[in-house]
Write a structure and sequence with these properties.
TonB-dependent receptor; signal; 8 helices; mainly beta; 5-stranded mixed beta sheet; Maltoporin, Chain A; 25-stranded mixed beta sheet; 2 domains
Length: about 800
């Protein structure tokens, strides 16, 4: 903390110190990121008002209409002026939209390691896992593609895929450099641009305010299978008179989650009676412990980040930042039992005999991702007495190598795919505060995106991708190990967008605030205006009524428009009574015919004629403050048309006589704007302070999410969700008990309970998770803690819930 004017005493201590005596010219810290400071003049008149505004605005280099907050509330008394810097939660009360703010202190108290941990405590947010074991989130029932992620005001997700664009993104955002996270719920297309038809997640990073270094470490053990994992963070902040720098490195590992539920499957045809020689093939038996099968994406995610801030004058700031993410994770998925006969027919038909044609092998697919994402960004900003302007540029490059291994004990092969995408955006933001009743913000942005990959099909070829392919068989058919260099065609797709918006925060009196926003967006897939209107009515100092209405739209991604990928039918069906067009006829030792059916294959085909999704929504809330707490009750409604959907076209690929099956049952799936969905519900939130040590936060969300065409509820979402957090804190100890409970959650990936022919119906479940953490603050710069996540050991592979996890860690600042 730097005190530019030591002769003035601070009235209140806080994270941010702003001292404003007569004629002040600077605000310390070199500017406050994403901040608007409200100045209350006690004495001094208009002349003093202008000087204060000039000084403060010179320090506020990144003010926006949607991010006008600082870290904590502070009040300072000088000769003639009181300067009050309101904290983020206090400022949120003056915003019309429904927003939940998770501060750095919240993250510290629960030792949140990534963005998923942050979102777990936000009302209306639910989680799921898709068919490829990727974790995902939704806000008030809106999919993650409708709730984009922003970092310091710039959208993070690219244009490559919308249905899968946010997959695993929660785990890729480390909390080590976050100052706070703001989760906006409701249609926000006018305020935050295209794709924000269900809300927005705004990450505000921390700035260096004093020179120091820090080190955090956490070690975890998963009770389910005793696997361990860890997280560490190492960083340093350096603060000078006109320059500040920040460097950090973080590594977060995730242990594999081995799924023991597969042992409950029924395999009626895999018996020693039918196959007497099966004992010589251990994988043809159903193993008791599938220690080589895991379902989540496990591995390491490493972050390297550096930022530099420079203030050449008291009114100007220049910033450059670089961030690199290396994501090396993999997943293994059980596929069933592989037909040895089918494999031999395709590769070595001369080796096929009556003795071996009925063999099956336990098979699983191992997918390894090697991802590197580099982000360069910078801005220059200038402030004056009644406003400020900022010019920003951001360039992001994403590369992903996917190696796919099909494995049995005797047969293995490896193939690879490549994906590359990039986004470059130019952004201008102008803020004007010249009128006490109006605060106006004007923004303009231009963005270009491209995607190159082996799983695209366009008219634009972009070279070829060469990779090392190998195939191995332990029985020595052929050469045993076959290696070669394979080549796949690369295709390229491009998209472009520009948009402009204007927002006016109008305060006609001390009871009413009106915030209209108008935005126009031109995108490769279409152009559309979006509007938003927020109103706050302040009945008294403790009661507010807020209402919002707005429109939004979401554009399709390159993957949905140009997808090209096939998964052949090779997994035998283990359920009784399920019949498909894909099968092989095998004989047992007595010569009896036994027909084995296979799950259909998948062929994904893009649709270049997709149009943007459109949304119309509103919400209304009542906020009330009490002597020892505060509450909020919100009703919301969101109607989305032209809903982007993956569907079965009722078509199949032509029969391939070389694939070893009687009929080819590879089904063609594509994307369409078929659905209309309605998302509506009620949220109730309450925080109560019992005394200076104890506090409680609780919320309940009811979600009515239905497909209008069928009247059925949308899957992978709960009907009711309850969240709670009980906190205790004194000078030396801190403890938190928090968790959630979900009812009527429709899970379509629960392989233990869902039959193949009724997968759309899903399996309805109720479940809860409770967590406990206790921390000891040894000194102001040293602490340690221990805790347990998922106290009652609930497990669900389909939801990536791994059971009880033990945690121990510490933090050191120096």
């Amino acid at each position: 903390m730097i005190n530019l004017y030591p002769k003035y005493k601070k009235k209140k201590m806080s994270d941010w110190i702003i001292l404003c005596p007569n004629g002040v010219e600077k605000v310390l810290g070199g500017g406050i990121l994403n901040t608007k400071i409200r100045i209350n003049i006690i004495n001094g008149g208009e002349y003093m008002r202008k000087h204060i505004w000039a000084a403060v605005m010179a320090a506020i280099f990144s003010t926006t209409v949607s991010s006008i907050y600082v870290q904590a509330e502070s009040t300072y008394l000088t000769d003639n002026v009181v300067v009050r810097a309101e904290n983020a939660r206090a400022r949120a009360k003056k915003r019309p939209e429904t927003v939940t703010i998770i501060t750095k202190q919240d993250m510290k108290e629960k030792k949140m390691q990534d963005l998923r941990n942050v979102l777990e405590v936000v009302p209306g947010v639910s989680f799921s896992v898709d068919g490829m074991n990727r974790s995902d989130y939704s806000i008030r029932g809106a999919a993650s593609r409708h709730c984009p992620i922003f970092v310091d005001g710039l959208k993070e997700a690219g244009e490559y895929s919308k249905l899968m664009g946010a997959a695993n993104e929660m785990e890729r955002f480390s909390t080590h450099n976050m100052a706070r996270v703001e989760v906006v719920r409701g249609v926000s297309g006018a305020r935050y641009g295209s794709d924000a038809v269900g809300g927005a997640i705004r990450i505000i990073t921390k700035r260096p305010v004093k020179t120091n270094a820090y080190f955090d470490y956490e070690y975890r053990v998963v009770a389910h299978d005793k696997n361990d994992e860890y997280t560490y963070r190492l960083g340093m902040d350096m603060v000078g008179k006109r320059m500040q720098a920040q460097v950090s490195v973080a590594d977060n590992t995730t242990a594999p989650y081995y799924n023991w539920q597969y042992a409950d499957y029924n395999l009626p045809y895999m018996t020693d009676k039918n196959f007497p020689d099966v004992k010589t093939m251990d994988t043809a038996h159903w193993p008791k412990n599938h220690t080589f099968i895991q379902d989540n994406f496990s591995g390491s995610r490493r972050h390297l980040e550096g930022r530099l801030f420079f203030q050449p004058t008291s009114r100007t700031e220049v910033m450059y930042g670089f961030h690199r993410l290396n994501d090396d994770t993999r997943t293994a998925e059980f596929l069933g039992h592989f037909s040895f006969e089918w494999w031999l027919r395709g590769d070595w038909p001369e080796a096929l005999t009556e003795k071996n044609k009925g063999f099956f092998f336990t098979e699983y697919m191992d997918i390894a991702n090697h991802i590197q994402r580099d982000t360069n960004q910078g801005y220059i900003s200038y402030g004056w007495n009644t406003g400020d302007i900022k010019l920003r540029v951001k360039d992001s490059h994403y590369g992903k190598l996917t190696n796919t291994y099909l494995n049995t004990t005797y047969l293995k092969n490896k193939s690879s795919d490549w994906l590359e995408s990039g986004d470059r955006s130019y952004d201008m933001e102008l803020n004007w505060y010249g009128n006490p009743k109006h605060s106006i913000t004007v923004t303009a942005q231009r963005k270009k995106s491209y995607g190159i990959g082996t799983r695209l099909r366009t008219t634009n070829k972009a070279g070829s991708f060469k990779y090392h392919y190998w195939e191995y068989n332990a029985w020595g058919y052929g050469d045993g190990i076959w290696e070669t260099t394979e080549e796949k065609q690369l295709y390229r797709a491009d998209m472009e967008e520009w948009n402009a918006a204007i927002t006016d925060t109008y305060t006609p009196n001390n009871k009413i605030t009106v915030v209209p926003t108008l935005r126009y967006t031109h995108h490769t897939t279409g152009h559309r205006p979006t509007v938003g209107l927020g109103i706050i009515y302040k009945n008294d100092d403790r009661t507010k009524i807020k209402a919002n209405v707005g429109t939004g739209f979401s554009t399709p991604g390159m993957m949905e428009m140009y997808h090209h990928f096939m998964m052949k039918p090779f997994t035998p069906i283990t359920e009784d009574g399920v019949v498909t067009d894909c099968y092989v006829d095998a004989k047992d030792t007595k010569g009896n015919l036994q027909r084995i059916y296979f799950y259909p294959g998948w062929y994904f085909q893009g649709n270049p004629n997709l149009i943007p999704e459109k949304a119309l929504g509103f919400d209304i809330s009542l906020e009330k403050e009490y002597t020892h707490g505060q509450g909020r009750l919100t009703a919301f409604y969101n109607h989305i048309t032209d809903y982007l959907n993956l569907y079965y076209t009722l078509k199949k690929l032509e029969t391939d006589p070389d694939d070893g099956t009687q009929l080819n049952d590879t089904r063609i799936y594509s994307y369409s704007n078929l659905k209309r969905v309605t998302l509506a519900g009620v949220e109730a939130e309450y925080t109560h302070r019992f005394n200076k040590h104890w506090s409680l936060t609780a919320s309940a969300t009811y979600l009515h999410a239905v497909d209008d065409s069928t009247g059925k509820r949308l899957t992978m979402k709960p009907l009711w969700k309850y969240i709670y957090s009980l906190n205790y804190k004194n000078k030396a100890w801190h403890g938190t008990l928090w968790g959630e409970y979900n009812t009527n959650y429709i899970d379509i990936f629960d392989r233990k309970h869902i039959k193949f022919e009724r997968i759309e119906e899903g399996y309805e479940k109720n479940y809860g998770i409770a967590n406990l953490l206790i921390e000891r603050q040894v000194t102001p710069s040293l602490s340690y803690y221990f805790g347990v996540n998922n106290l009652f050991h609930y497990q669900s592979t389909s939801l990536n819930i791994r059971g009880r996890i033990f945690r121990i860690g510490g933090s050191l600042q120096f």
